[in-house]
Amino acid sequence: MDADSHYLKTHLTSSEIRYCKSKKYPAEPAAARIASKKALLRILKVPASRQMQWMREIQIGKKPDGKPFIKLSALFKKNFKMKQDSRWLLSIAHERELAAAWVSVCGV
Question: With 9 labelled, which of 18, 38, 51, 79 sits at a CA distance of 20 to 30 A?
Answer without folding.
Answer: 79
